[in-house]
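This part of the workshop introduces the protein records we will be handling. A record pairs a protein's sequence with a compact description of its fold. Comparing a sequence with its tokens is the quickest way to learn the format. To make this concrete, we reproduce a full record directly below:
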Amino acid sequence: MYAEPSRPGAVVALLLLAFVPLLTALNVTRAPGTLPARWATLRPHLRHAAYGWSLALTFVLLTGRLGAWTLLPLVLSTGLLEAGVWHVQERLQHAARRSLSLRALRRSGLPTLLVAAATYALVLGAWVYLAANLPIPAWAQAHPDAWTLVPTYGAATLLSAWLANHRQLPLLTGLWLLLAALLASPLIPLSSPLLAGTLLAVCAFLTALSLRTLLDPRSYR
């Protein structure tokens, strides 16, 4: 057993994932009362909300299949993921100021994005490897295939976070909802190899989408 959460626990986690960002969005940038929670205020951000819910739903369903401890490194490394996305965009902006041609931008943008995703995956993989060798109770052990599942899902999440800032929200939302549907379907019992292959396919698709997005000069703003 790999510390699998109960259904009520998963529901509570999903509610918290939605409630905390909502409070932050309404209060972090302005004094209380100056940003009323009206339909006109929230409507422009519904696409972001749908994308966030699709990510949260996929994460909760993965937790149910793999166990809470397997995905714990992803939770604890959220700051590293955000830093990676910020670093990628900063490097792309520097490249845009130095380059005069789109071809030169592509040459600098391609390795920047892929190296960031690969680095995040390697950090997660190293973390999982070290944790597997720590003297922790059996009930807290991660899934045996965590060393492949966690880095792959982490790289996909980083690529998705970068793409979400570049007008790809509808496609990303559909992709994560499709993955969530596969995870939730009782007709498709995903074994570990099949789950690993599914996550690899998602990561490959997001990589291809990222490379296509880099062809747009607006991605370097």
